Amino acid sequence: YTETVPVTMLKVVGIDLTSIGRIHAEAATDQVLTHEEVAEHRYRKLVIADNRIVGAILLGYPELAPGVAAAVKDEINMAPHLAALQTGDWSLLQELA
What we know:
- By secondary structure, this protein is of the alpha+beta class.
- The chain contains two helices and five strands.
- The protein has a five-stranded antiparallel beta sheet with strand order 1-2-5-4-3, with helices on one face.
- Strand 4 and strand 5 (52-59) form a beta hairpin.
- The radius of gyration is 13 Å and the shape is globular.
C-alpha cells in the first residue's frame, strides 16, 4: 500500500481553492511560507519539512496546483529553491507539473 497525498480542489464563485497534504507545521523545524494579495483575493501557503513541500493552500492560484502536488507526491528536495520561495518567487513550481 502506498499512502496517497490528499488533494482537494474547489471552485467557489470564480475563485479556485486547492488544499494539498499538511496545512500546518508539525515540528519546530518546519517552515511555513505565506503570501497574500488582499486586493486580488488571493492567498498561498506552503508547509516545508526537511526541505520538501509537504502541504499547501492555494486560493486563486490554480496554475501552481499541479506543480505543488507533484512536489509533495514526489518528495522533491526544494533546498536549492528555498531562497526563491522565501522571497515570493514560486514560478518554479509551475515547471514541476
